[in-house]
């Protein structure tokens, strides 16, 4: 099956951070979140990156879990304590790949297909549930000021 087939069959659309997605679940239950905002308890999406596509640095106000389904290994780059930490989603456990990863709330992170070829299909769940009001796409200049020691990586993974 080709990447365009997967995009068509799963009815994926372009995501503002890069790649393709489709929301597959939104809890009918709600919860009060930071401030007085109400959010769905949980949400889930399919998410696909192909080739040189990137999920550019962004952050959200909730914890997010990523689950690997198929394709090539996917690197998730988290900016934690002034340094870049890479978690690789995949099925080769002997190569330190993992089938799921957690991104803590308010953490800058990005993702890319490890070798820049093929595709990676994952799912992401967010709790409290995702809302675009909680989504912040990084500004290259601002993130470079915050992480000057990572200027090259920030330049590669921002627009």
Automatic annotation (TrEMBL):
Ranges for domain DUF985: 5-138
Q: Which InterPro entries match?
A: Cupin_DUF985, RmlC-like_jellyroll, RmlC_Cupin_sf, YML079W-like
- Looking at the record's lineage, which domain of life comes first? Bacteria
Q: Which CDD domains match?
A: cupin_YML079wp (cd06121)
Q: Which is an annotated Pfam family here?
A: Cupin_5
**PANTHER family, alphabetically?**
DUF985 DOMAIN-CONTAINING PROTEIN, RMLC-LIKE JELLY ROLL FOLD PROTEIN
**Name of the protein in question:** DUF985 domain-containing protein
Please report the organism this UniProt entry assigns to the protein: Hymenobacter koreensis
Q: What is the lineage of its organism?
A: Bacteria, Pseudomonadati, Bacteroidota, Cytophagia, Cytophagales
């Amino acid at each position: 099956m080709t990447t365009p087939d997967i995009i068509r069959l799963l009815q994926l659309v372009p995501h503002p951070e890069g790649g393709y997605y489709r929301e597959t679940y939104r809890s009918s239950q709600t919860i009060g979140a930071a401030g007085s905002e109400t959010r769905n308890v949980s949400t889930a999406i399919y998410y696909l990156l192909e080739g040189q596509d990137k999920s550019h640095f962004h952050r959200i106000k909730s914890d997010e879990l990523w689950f690997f389904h198929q394709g090539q290994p996917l690197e998730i780059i988290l900016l934690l304590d002034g340094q870049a930490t890479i978690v690789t989603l995949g099925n080769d456990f002997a190569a330190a790949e993992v089938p799921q990863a957690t991104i803590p709330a308010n953490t800058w992170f990005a993702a890319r297909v490890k070798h820049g070829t093929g595709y990676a299909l994952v799912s992401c769940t967010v709790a409290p549930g995702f809302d675009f009001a909680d989504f912040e796409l990084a500004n290259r200049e601002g993130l470079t000021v915050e992480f000057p020691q990572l200027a090259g990586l920030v330049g590669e993974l921002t627009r």
